[in-house]
Amino acid sequence: MVRAAEQRAAPEPQRGGGGAQPGTAPPGTGGGAAARGGAMLRGCGRGAAAALRGAAGSRRASGQERQGPGPGRPLEPSLLRFLVCPLSKRPLRYEESTNELVNEELGIAYPIIDGIPNMIPEAARTTRKRPPAEGSEQP
Amino acid sequence: MAAGLRPGRALLSRRRGALCALLRAARGLAARPETHFGFQNVTEAERREKIYQVFENVAEKYDVMNDSMSLGIHRVWKDILVHKMNPSPGTLLVDVAGGTGDIAFRFLNYVRSVRERQLQQKLRNHQNLSWQEISKSYQEEKSNPLGDSQVVVCDINKEMLKAGMQKAQHLGYSEGLSWVLGNAEELPFDDDKFDVYTIAFGIRNVTRIDLALQEAYRVLKPGGRFLCLEFSHVSNPLLSRLYDLYSFQVIPVLGEVIAGDWKSYQYLVESIRRFPPQEELKAMIEDAGFLKVDYQNLNSGIVAIHSGFKL
């Protein structure tokens, strides 16, 4: 499992006011370059069409420009409304420094990789020295 | 005498114990967590692992394979699902096992077009608007084209989610769309949150379907709708035979030729056969607490949409 430490990032301040499009940088989705190469060719054509179609509501800044596998993207603030710990169903705290969602009671932290929170209990990291009170159960 | 009887009785009880164990083993599911992977029998843990690997392998070619296996008809099935859902702007959807985002994108398109029609209708009804009010209305459409609708795509497989995110980027979907890595049997969402829960061609791959259905019930708001699109059983004998022929002879070959993966598509076909038929799934959904559960067969039962409400 990818540790949060590998994806340490300074998250960009989210300016998601109202329905305005947040101008986030294109995601650094790590992944097979070959897969992306083929997908990009297909995507370029569709990207152009989408850009023309999406004149009314500008969506992504530039889908073509691709940064390398950059630091993990921060979490969308709207998601935090819904997310809870899958084990205890208690609310989570978003930790900006490590880009994780922390469950204080159980002492576990779920990593956020490329903007996708990994809410699988086995992937969670224990934040305390000793194992948490409730062991991470098998789903 | 009693001493003589006692070892005899002990022997009998031991034999009975062994017989019970044998019966339990024969019954299978109750005692040990044994389940199936296609036509093989495996433990639950093994099944999860194998299924994860299947989708890890097929993630990149998933859409291409869907198109070639179903001759593009899977698009129609998914369209029908979203039309049946008939979401209005402001709907919160959770799409579980939604991997590459097919349902999510359709949902966003649908809601966007409904919203446009709403705004046009509003304009048409107010004939005496000033120029200022008309331009404000257009601005409203521009700033909130989805009407606060949102869809959360949840999948257990990282590769499928990554493929979905890339597709979203290419097609230009960004607003109202979120991605979460989670397990359908243990959703990381709070109670009473979503208006609609969909699971399209995913519930077949869940190891504990009853848990997934319970979680679906939990995260839905009262009045929320559960929709499940899944391969099901064909009752027509002639069609069934043709379908079997196609499934077992053509699909794995396509899998090998297009995706270089015979085994995954063999699993796919077998898992369809192992999945409970329409009525049984309906009973399972009712067990989870849903009411007004019903199903609609598409293509004579090759695919079925099950629907239930949390009331």
From TrEMBL, chain A:
Keywords per UniProt: Mitochondrion, Transit peptide
Gene3D superfamilies recorded: 2.20.25.10
Homology family: Belongs to the PREY family.
Protein name: Protein preY, mitochondrial
UniProt-listed HAMAP family: UPF0434 (MF_01187)
Key word Transit peptide present: yes
Top-rank taxon: Eukaryota
Record-annotated membrane-spanning stretches: none
Pfam families xref list: Trm112p
GO CC list: mitochondrion
Major localization class: mitochondrion
Annotated spans, Disordered: 1-78
The organism of origin for this protein: Phasianus colchicus (Common pheasant)
Location of this chain's protein in the cell: Mitochondrion
Lineage of origin: Eukaryota, Metazoa, Chordata, Craniata, Vertebrata
Automatic annotation (TrEMBL), chain B:
Subcellular location: Mitochondrion inner membrane
Domain of life: Eukaryota
Reactions catalysed, as given in the entry: a 2-methoxy-6-(all-trans-polyprenyl)benzene-1,4-diol + S-adenosyl-L-methionine = a 5-methoxy-2-methyl-3-(all-trans-polyprenyl)benzene-1,4-diol + S-adenosyl-L-homocysteine + H(+)
EC number: 2.1.1.201
Primary location: mitochondrion
Stored SUPFAM superfamilies: S-adenosyl-L-methionine-dependent methyltransferases
Summary of the function given for this chain in its UniProt record: Methyltransferase required for the conversion of 2-decaprenyl-6-methoxy-1,4-benzoquinol (DDMQH2) to 2-decaprenyl-3-methyl-6-methoxy-1,4-benzoquinol (DMQH2).
Subunit structure: Component of a multi-subunit COQ enzyme complex, composed of at least COQ3, COQ4, COQ5, COQ6, COQ7 and COQ9. Interacts with PYURF; the interaction is direct, stabilizes COQ5 protein and associates PYURF with COQ enzyme complex.
NCBIfam families, per database record: MenG_MenH_UbiE (TIGR01934)
UniProt-recorded name of the protein: 2-methoxy-6-polyprenyl-1,4-benzoquinol methylase, mitochondrial
